[in-house]
Amino acid sequence: MTEMYIPKEKLAGVVEDLIGRQRVYGPVFDGAYHNFEEIKSAGALDLAYSNTRLSAKGLFHPHSERMFEYSLASGDPEAGVLKETEKDYSPRVVLGMRPCDARALKIMDRNFNSPQYGDPWWVKRIEATTIVGLACNAPCGTCFCTTAGSGPFDDSGLDAMLVDLGEGYLARAVTDKGSALLSQISKGSAAPADAAQKADALRRSAEAAIGLQFDVGSITGKDSMELFNSPIWEEIQFACINCGTCTFLCPTCWCFDIQDETHGEHGDRIRIWDSCMFPLFTLHGSGHNPRQNKAQRVRQRFMHKLRYYPEKYGDGIACTGCGRCVRACPVNIDIRNVARLMSSSACVRPA
Amino acid sequence: MKNPYLPYPVRIDSIVTETEDRNLKTFTLVFKNPEDEARFAYTPGQFAELSVAGQGESPIGIASSPTEKGFIKFTVNKVGRVTSHLHSMKEGDVMGVRGPMGNWYPWETLEGKNIVIIGGGFAFTTLRSSIVYMLHPDNRSRFGDITVVYGARSPGLLLYKDELAAWEQRDDIKMHITVDGCSDPNWKYNVGFVPTVTKEKAPSADNAYAIICGPPIMIKFTLPVLTDLGFPPDRIISSLEMRMKCGIGICGRCNIGSEYVCKDGPVFTLEKLSKLPNEY
Ligand SMILES: Cc1cc2nc3c(=O)[nH]c(=O)nc-3n(C[C@H](O)[C@H](O)[C@H](O)COP(=O)(O)OP(=O)(O)OC[C@H]3O[C@@H](n4cnc5c(N)ncnc54)[C@H](O)[C@@H]3O)c2cc1C
Ligand code: SF4
Ligand code: SF4
Ligand code: FES
Q1: Residue of chain A nearest B10, judged by CA positions
Q2: Which pTM value belongs to this model?
Q3: What's the pLDDT at A351?
């Protein structure tokens, strides 16, 4: 089935059925914020949310993860040889992901699954997952997804999308994986005749509320070296305290470190999110550091998202306009202002 | 799916201390599983991640040549955590190698050309690989004149001394070994900095490419000499170093502008570098 209607009173039953068949993840309210967690019973899922505090990237690229394990025990013939750590790649469903976060996974996929190298953990998790998104009827003031090449109803990263029509959800399959999932749902009914029209009206009003906030083309069209050498970075970096919050929360910041952690005679090679905002990120063993100044690091973050990534892949910017970095930056550095400075384009404010 | 983060297990076959300060050792490694040697097929100019369980990994240029079978070689400067631990390891110990990684010197373009190799200090590793590769009987006729300028601070800091001496004796490679200073009255070779010696020996730029690896200060002062000799930027090739982790263009650490040094490099022409941010 490619389209169905799920009345809100039936949602809990639908979720329980899904839990019986595979692992289910979704937004859970932890008292302060919403975050993605495994849903063990339908009551934990909370779809009445704006967006999660942490992005959905952690479901596929966890903040820290074991890559390999090793023994250092003397006498162990396999001592010093790394072995892959067992992981659960059984099928799972993520419910309620926002379109911008799902689009971010497409951007990350370019990095983690290139024609040359597939990151095995990333690839297997993506393969194991069916993503059921939740369209945004009420974007917040920091959202600029439509400017960034996504949108409140963008289904490009989704397998299926839910639209909240008030009394119930319109569920639409986007991919074969999505239809396969919808066909598991027996509690749905045929969509009411006016459902598509209502969903379209919601999309238009959500898109209009966001408006165009800067011009991507006038950044990606500029000479990279000219932007790199521009004096704007001095002004932009001034207040930044290099806390790394922006990269931590961002759904498209994928950089990581690899470290060995040994406990007694056994240990793990682990990877952990890292940040281009930290001076250690580029510090050579010799002491030389190509990005030792804060201005260089701030420039790197914005140039990577808005100029280097589009230059490398020719596929839009590495930002989906989710607005997390804008909301959470302790010194109010706003990527939209940075983008406007980079493009020197006039900004069109939402009406 | 092959896991690109999983090192091949190797055994340390031999360890040679290269320099009198004992800061550089060459490790000859043998694959524990013989079939891994074919999987590790490499080209001079590439590097690998040396992995020691419990310590981590370090990106190191491959110093052996693919024409040398049955082993791979790396020359490691003792710097920090991983490289210091490597220096404390013994023959017979087990470690890991991941790779090969990165691009290589452009051998197809270099075919039929005169090759000028300029090296300084311990950055001579992939240059050794290249020289051994070109001098191999199967390959020598594919290249024109080979000229080498190689310098270190003192004679005791030169790498691969036996091979340097052997190359000196050959008539199909022109060697200009030099040291910054020397108190040994028996020193038979040049005294002077690499840029000065390059200027003196003035290798011709006709139909030639230059490959230059060394400390930034050496490169900085040698580039104008090469330009004066008539080498255009697209015929000057260098290899860069950046802090690395994954080595395969995924962890995001080693970029210069839109290029990842680990995957799109480490080998770049001067022409390409001039279009990238000067952030290395
Ligand atoms: C392409 C390429 C080729 C190279 N070829 C050679 C070569 O042929 N020979 C050679 O000798 N060198 C070579 N190098 C340089 C070599 O990679 C470095 O010298 C080496 O990685 C240093 O590693 P280390 O563990 O000894 O140093 P460390 O500085 O100790 O770094 C090792 C790791 O330990 C951790 N670490 C260390 N200090 C800290 C800290 N204060 N805080 C947090 N974490 C820390 C980090 O995770 C770090 O990545 C090459 C480099 C590149 C990029
Ligand atoms: S959140 Fe703000 S202050 Fe912190 S590193 Fe990012 S830009 Fe700088
Ligand atoms: S850069 Fe900011 S707005 Fe863009 S995707 Fe990352 S967190 Fe969201
Ligand atoms: S070392 Fe990971 S991207 Fe280059």
Answers
A1: A81
A2: 0.94
A3: 38
